Structure formats: structure tokens, C-alpha cells
Amino acid sequence: MTATITLAFLHHLAFVVVFATLMVELVVLRNELTVASARSVVRMDMVYGIAATVVLVVGLLRVFYTEKGAAYYFASGTFLAKFTLFIIVGLLSIYPTLQFLRWRAALREQRVPAFDSATRSKVRMLIHIELTLLVVMVLLAVMMARGIGFLG
Fold first, then answer.
1. How many domains is the chain partitioned into structurally?
2. Which of 11, 72, 130, 135 could pair covalently with 58 via S-S, beta carbons 3.0-4.6 A apart?
3. Residue 79 has what pLDDT?
4. Cα distance between residue 12 and residue 152, in whole Å
5. What is the pLDDT of residue 54?
């Protein structure tokens, strides 16, 4: 019972951190970059990656070792949709992360990284999509908790 509660807590906490870091990135990227704001975005993206990894690892531990068992989850269309959305969010995050990683050299030299308006718009759009999909994942989680599934 303790493992179930601990893993559920860690899973939900990490999910909140994923959402929060994306919100911070979105807000900071609304304005012109400074060295300090660019550093903040790079840090938030690192925290995002760590938290997303925790969500995945702890979620899989819950699926395979606690809760209802892997057979239950992998037979649930709701779970499969939620897991698919998580993968899509991860794939969508690659482009912004690559942009932020390119900033490291400029930041080491105390310079504001190059970030043109077209790239800014694309990164912000991707973050908006990620956040929207995360909200849909919360709906799917609520449906799963109530035993509502697409396939059975």
C-alpha cells in the first residue's frame, strides 16, 4: 500500500512540475530575451526533461508493479490514448529543447542568444500544444480512474 501511494504521489507531483515548467517557459518567452531570462528557460527545460522522465519511469512502475496491473492498462483505450499523448508531447518538446541547447555557447559568453521572431513563434506554439495535450491527459486520467475506457 505504501509503495502504491508513494508512486502515485511522485507520478502526480512530477506531472505538475512538467506542466509548471512549460508554463514558465511560455511566459518567459513572451518577452524579449535577456541573458537572465534565457538562462531561466534553459534551466526550466532541464527540469522539464527530468520531471518528464520521472513521470514516465514512475508511471511504468505503477503500471507493472502496483495498481491494477499491466494487462488492465494495456487493454484500456483510455490508457493507450493517454500514453500516446505523452509520447507526442515528448516528441513536440524536441524542437524547443534543441533551440534552448543552442543557447549555451552564447550564455557562457554572457550574450543574449539569437532567437528570431519566427523561431520564437514556433517554439511558443509547440509549448501551447504540449500544454493543451497535457490537459487532455488529465481528462483521460480522470476517465481511467472512473473505469471509463474507449475499448473496454
1. 1
2. 11
3. 93
4. 25
5. 98
* pLDDT for the residue numbered 115: 95
Domain that holds residue 66: 2-76+91-127
CA distance 106 to 90: 26
Whether residue 18 contacts residue 52, with contact meaning beta carbons closer than 8 Å, is answered with yes
Q: Is residue 106 part of a domain?
A: yes
Contacts of 62 (CB under 8 A, 6+ apart): 4, 7, 8, 11
With a cut of 70, list the residues of the chain below it in pLDDT: 151-152
CB neighbourhood size of 2 (10 A)? 6
Let me know: does 147 contact 141? Beta carbons within 8 Å: no
Side-chain-side CA neighbours of residue 145 (13 Å):
7
Q: Name residues whose C-beta falls within 8 Å of residue 138's C-beta, 6 or more positions apart in sequence.
A: none
Angle made by CA atoms 88, 60, 149, in degrees to the nearest 5: 70
